[in-house]
Amino acid sequence: MQRRRWLQSVAALMIAAAVAAPAGATTLVRAGLEELVSVNDTVVIGEVREAHSYWNDEGTFILTDVRVTATDVLKGNPKDRDFTITILGGSVGDLTTLIVAGAELIPGKSYVLFLNKDDLPGVHGVRTVQYHAQGVFDIVQARDGRRAISQANRHPLVPDAFGRVDPPGGAKGLLLDIMTQAIRENVAREGARPEVQ
């Protein structure tokens, strides 16, 4: 039993290392707000209702299903207000799989979430946070109003093409109203672009 757990832990760490960055990347390259909006099909402000961790069907990796209630849909289907996302890692029994720079979603907390469909170990086509910590902004109350602070502030990022390493808003984050307006403007610009055939 102990040997099986050890093998599962080693397998989980190897998979985590392989998938801990956005698809096609090997590290977390700094993503700006415009990029986060354009590469994800859903952007919401929402509250985490509950989370449930479990082994995938192969028993090789722990995943967590997180139920979210959207208070505002900034991109995507405006009727899609109650849904589940799946993230890498979690705890089952006395075993925890921790994803370095992974999304951290806690029941009762509110976030700005950048979501897309993707394949994870043992599951296909699930809604997830592809950009891991960069795709989650904690909503906090500050003196000047509600702010959205990127979880990527907790992790080093590789500079983007312009040499920037801080996530959007930096350590202080963005005022939620200003961020919401910027996201809506980016979505509107996307809708105005002609489709490439």
What can you tell me about this protein's structure?
The protein has helices at 2-19, 33-39, 176-192; strands spanning 42-55, 62-75, 82-88, 90-92, 95-97, 110-120, 123-128, 136-142, 145-150, 174-175. It has three helices and ten strands. The chain is α+β, with helices and mostly antiparallel strands. The radius of gyration is 17 Å and the shape is globular. The model is unreliable at 9-26 (pLDDT under 50). Strands 1, 2, 3, 6, 7, 8, 9 and 10 form an eight-stranded antiparallel sheet that branches. Strands 4-5 form a two-stranded antiparallel sheet. The chain starts with a helix and ends in a 5-residue tail after the last helix. Helix 2 packs across helix 3 (176-192). The chain has one domain (2-192): OB fold (Dihydrolipoamide Acetyltransferase, E2P) (Beta Barrel).
Distance between the termini: 55 Å
Helix content: 10-25%
Question: What is the second-level CATH architecture?
Answer: Beta Barrel
How many DSSP helices? 3
Total discrete domains: 1
Strand content: 35-45%
Q: Evaluate the radius of gyration.
A: 17 Å
Coarse structural class: alpha+beta
- Quaternary status of these chains? single chain
Mean pLDDT: 88
Top-tier CATH class: Mainly Beta
Instruction: Report the major sheet.
Output: 8 strands, antiparallel
Which topology does CATH recognise? OB fold (Dihydrolipoamide Acetyltransferase, E2P)
SSE topology string: HHEEEEEEEEEEH
**Number of β-strand runs:** 10
Instruction: Sum up the overall morphology in one term.
Output: globular
The low-confidence parts are 9-26
